[in-house]
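Re: that chain you flagged

S.,

Sorry for the slow reply, it's been a week of failed gels. I finally had a moment to sit down with the sequence you sent. For the record, here it is as I used it:
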Amino acid sequence: MSHKLTIKAFFFNAKTDYLPYYKNFSITMDADATAKELLAQIQEQNENFSYPKQLLVFRINNLVVDAKETVGAIVERLGTELQIDPVSSYRSNDGLKINDSDFMKSFELVAPYASEDDLKAYKKMYALHYASESANFDRSYIGDAVLVLASKMIEKNPENEEAILEAITSVHSGLMDCEYENNLFNAEDHTETIAALKKLANPEDGPSLCSMIMTRLRGKEKEEKEVVVPERKVVTIDNLEEKTVAHYAGLSSHSKMHALMHDTEIREVHFSRSNKLSGLNILEANKDLALKKAGATLLDAFDAGAEVLVVEDLDTLDMFTENFAAIERNIGRRMIGLELISSKDFIAHISTVEA
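Prediction finished late last night. Pasting the structure tokens below so you have them in one place:
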């Protein structure tokens, strides 16, 4: 089986170009052809298109793909309209060829405690390093790969735990700036690994001996008071049916909300960050970075034409609403007219109108 592909490919030569640019190509490839062969076909049509012959990883529609991935798998996942970029556009010096000195620079942080096997394991995580979402917001971020390696090194040699944790947290942008997201074409989920590392670096303070004794003494005398969670105020939006609506699902599924909007003839718009994280998990550790991520999400929806943003996760909605003015200052843009509502309130509103 063959596929006709419409491709938008990245061009840039640091010696001759001031800014990067894209050129369009129409290419037919067999389903079992590789990603590397796809790049070779582009180069046949334009000799100025450049890509590395070794350590070949690059982005297709913003997912990091390696040389051996098949065209059939790419089309099944992403369709036939493809945009090809370097794994790191700002590190490009010739098309998809990049200055990758940062990769080994990150390894140097833990090198004093690393074995030859650790180095070999790290080199296999080249794609993971450049798939790091945090690097899109802070170019000095050390990368997810060294964090995954650090976790394995601590597990093997716990006597080095303190030194390794210090190495990956004391840099300008390290462990505490990581809100892990999988940007690899072939998914790798390191969420639990990162969370465990953060817990090691910042262990929760346990109760004091005195408080534990007092709790035991009072245990039979008095039951703990029930924690009362205040009810959330129901949010309504005037003339909702006349406005364009986008859905921010985060890591949740978007399909049910999309179906609901379609069935109720809501004017829906889609935006690229609808399934990305927005800084909630790093809000306390690095508020500036968290607001930058939140701003990227809100601005993406706003620029896509959304007047109303339905937010799936309540904690994320609270972060957006409580910090809305600060987010606008952080990104240097005002999002006048963008209204926020929870999915629960949105569904209740739609149900009332339908009834």
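What I noticed first: The chain is about 40% helix and 15% strand.

Talk soon,
D.
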